[in-house]
Amino acid sequence: MGKRPIIIDTDPGQDDAMAILLALGSPELDVLGITCVAGNTRLPAVIRNARIICELANRPEVRIFAGCDRPMVRDLQTAEHVHGPTGLDGPQWDEPTMPVEEQHAVDWLVDTLLAAEEPITLCPIGPLTNIAMAMIREPLIIPKIKEVVSMGGGYFVGGNVTPAAEFNIYVDPHAADVVYRSGVPLVAMPLDVTHKALMTREWLADMGQIPGKLGHHIAAMLNYYQKFDIDRYDEYGGPVHDPATVAYLLRPELFSGKDCFVQIETQSEVTMGMTVVDYWGARGQDANCTWIHEVDADGFFALMLERISSLAA
Ligand code: RIB
Ligand code: CA
């Protein structure tokens, strides 16, 4: 079986970093490119962070593209209060030297999907602005998308930015609405599942034991990142949201959920960005996504340790 071609659309972000490292450490996947979007922090910092992460993985050949620097309609809201002023706080990073591609991420997404001989999997782990703009610009890309596995949303556990909305959807609800209405095969990896896999002291210690800068910087990065969640939820261990999307591609059996009809709130300021999941089919609408809400947390963390350790070899 050949490698699975994927594109990671991201707003690094410490948990984005773990998703990128997991993908680069997994030989089943062919990371065609990383497209950057404004979210956790502003676009220039997001691009810098993506370059830092690829160099940490010793993969400076990965193609990195700059995408949208603001949501489709609303003003950009960032999350430096979670991720730090740089968006990737924790370790002392060296400034990256690897290049950024000239082409805009949205144009590259359209060109790459239209030219693809086999459908490509998209892993958006930030606001969906780039993905939606590509779909609007060229709807013919939709049949060239194998699957979108998107970290975003929350239903049974509510939101993490407002009581109703999760950050990625809240920042650009109009983009999320485009993607959820597009008909693309969609797997949602929401807070309902990511909050069932919290980091443990033992796992963090094991990650810190990965030889060299890789282990040291991952431990420093994640220890910084989980402070917000530990303070808010008053329990040890933060959720590592974004790598759940890549883990799903590698070992889907670690996850389970239900095909559901999901709508995105784009009108009310009270519930803006809410993923309204019709879990019991009350509306009788066809499902537009698989809503993941269960995970084998031990298997998920073991997979990250195994695959990311391989980058140190
Ligand atoms: O709500 C969690 C999501 O928002 C993650 O993707 C995190 O990186 C932030 O972008
Ligand atoms: Ca993210």
Provide an overview of this structure:
The chain is of the alpha/beta class and 313 residues long. The protein has one domain: Inosine-uridine Nucleoside N-ribohydrolase, Chain A, CATH 3.90.245.10. The protein has helices at residues 14-24, 43-56, 80-83, 105-115, 129-137, 167-171, 173-181, 191-194, 201-208, 212-233, 243-250, 297-309; strands spanning 4-10, 29-36, 64-66, 120-124, 145-151, 186-189, 255-264, 275-278, 289-295. The chain is globular. 52% of the residues are buried. The model has no long low-confidence stretch (mean pLDDT 97). The site of calcium ion (CA) has 8 residues, from helix 1.
How is this fold's topology laid out?
Blueprint: E1 4-10, H1 14-24, E2 29-36, H2 43-56, E3 64-66, H3 80-83, H4 105-115, E4 120-124, H5 129-137, E5 145-151, H6 167-171, H7 173-181, E6 186-189, H8 191-194, H9 201-208, H10 212-233, H11 243-250, E7 255-264, E8 275-278, E9 289-295, H12 297-309
Parallel strand pairs: 1-2, 1-4, 2-3, 4-5, 5-6, 6-9
Antiparallel strand pairs: 7-8, 7-9
The structure holds alpha-D-ribofuranose and calcium ion.
Alpha-D-ribofuranose is lined by residues 11, 13, 15-16, 39-40, 125-126, 151, 160, 166-168, 241-242.
In short:
38% of the residues lie in helices and 18% in strands. By secondary structure, it is of the alpha/beta class. 52% of the residues are buried.
The shape is: globular
Strand content: 15-25%
CATH topology: Inosine-uridine Nucleoside N-ribohydrolase, Chain A
Bound molecules: alpha-D-ribofuranose, calcium ion
The major pleated sheet works out as: 9 strands, mixed
H/E topology pattern: EHEHEHHEHEHHEHHHHEEEH
Query: Into how many domains do the coordinates divide?
Result: 1
Radius of gyration: 18 Å
Portion of residues in helices? 25-40%
- Give me the side-by-side strand order of the main sheet: 3-2-1-4-5-6-9-7-8
